[in-house]
Amino acid sequence: MALSSVASHLMHRLAVLAVCSFVVSAQAPGAGQRLVEDGQRALAQGLYQQAGEAFEKARQAGPLSAETLAQLGVAYYQQAKFAQAVPVLRQALKLKPGLSNAEALLAMSLSELGRFKEAVPGLEKSFRRMSDPPIRRMSGLQLTRAYTGLELDDKAVETALELRRLYPNDAEVLYHTARLFGNYAYLTMQRLASVAPDSVWRLQASAEVYESQEAYDAAIGQYEKVLAMDPGRPGIHFRIGRAMLARARQSQTRTEETKLAIRQFEEELRIDPTNANAAYELGEIYRKDAQFNQAREYFELGLKSYPDFEEALIGLGRTLISLERPAEALPRLRKAVEINPNDEVAYYTLAQAHRALGNSAEQQKALTEFRRLREKHATQEPREAKREVTRQEIEAEAR
């Protein structure tokens, strides 16, 4: 995973740190001192090439202090001249080992050069001990890069998790950690295929990949191979049924596909009566088919195993309203709203229950919240979250 671009994002910050946090030792008076001052001004202004040239001329005029050498290292680093930065930073640290910023910058330069084994100790120290958030953040990103380069994938993931905890809303951190997690998952699946190519786990993983790609025929085929090896394996009939429902939405044979899915969900419940997802899917199929008594039984079965199942609470509430039992629907719908106050479907259905009971004030209150949420969601980018079950939606006439 290449992270060389990471270096550019904190360039000016590092330059300012170089000028402000390094206490400059007195240089020999004369041209050398003036050149050092020229270099520091250029560095503070982000003129890195000019700063490096001034520091190098000063270096030719006489020995530089550890702090000024560190600033020269910053100038080289900012220009991505990592090979030139390394010896300068090493020399600065030899003169003054306590320059923690220079130590961090040296480790990052080594990482940029692909010298990961040399870089790791310094990066680990900077990431664990640095109090300056930008340098700590950058050290962490480079550390994940170094660990990945050394094939220490577990350590890379541990560091990425810590980075995400420290900087939860940092776009760059999220981007790089997401790539790392994806790569780690891929490598893990590759290892699974290598060590257990004929296992049910490998077949199930393959089926889930096909399902995520909406290749439902291939997914169902792989799930069926899992069942051939382990007929009583929990969860597989549910996944087949879910894939069949998805395939039904894409095909012209919706009724037949739904019948096949019903058989799969029923078989899942025979194997595992506590599978709330399978019970919910059956409840939703029967609700949409206006078979409300059967729908109620399955929704209640799902809620027996999973009392806080928001979608099932809404489905049961809608079913009870259709059965002209709105008073029984109210507590279920109120609970759904408590679980997820941002669910517009729950508020809309709650308003329907109040209307059926003649509670005009409560109906208007629920409708007001429904409209507020609908308007809010309309202005937001749609997010397609992966869902284990069919989502509750408002019927077309209410849209």
Give a short overview.
The chain is mainly α and 399 residues long. 74% of the residues lie in helices and 0% in strands. Helix 5 (82-95) packs antiparallel against helix 6, helix 18 packs antiparallel against helix 19 (344-357) and helix 19 packs antiparallel against helix 20 (360-378).
Number of helices: 20
CATH architecture of the domain at 4-192: Alpha Horseshoe
Specify the CATH homologous superfamily of the domain at 4-192: Tetratricopeptide repeat domain
The count of DSSP E runs of length 2 or more, i.e. the number of strands, is 0
The separation of the N and C termini measures: 46 Å
Choose one word for the global shape.
Answer: elongated
Low-confidence stretches: 1-5, 7-13, 15-28
The overall average pLDDT, rounded, is 87
- Computed CA radius of gyration, to the nearest angstrom: 31 Å
The main pleated sheet reads as: none
CATH topology of the domain at 4-192: the name is Serine Threonine Protein Phosphatase 5, Tetratricopeptide repeat
Helix % is over 70%
Portion of residues in beta strands equals under 5%
> SSE order, as H and E?
HHHHHHHHHHHHHHHHHHHH
Please identify the top-level CATH class of the domain at 4-192: Mainly Alpha
Search tags:
0% strand; Serine Threonine Protein Phosphatase 5, Tetratricopeptide repeat; disordered N terminus; 399 residues; 20 helices; mainly alpha
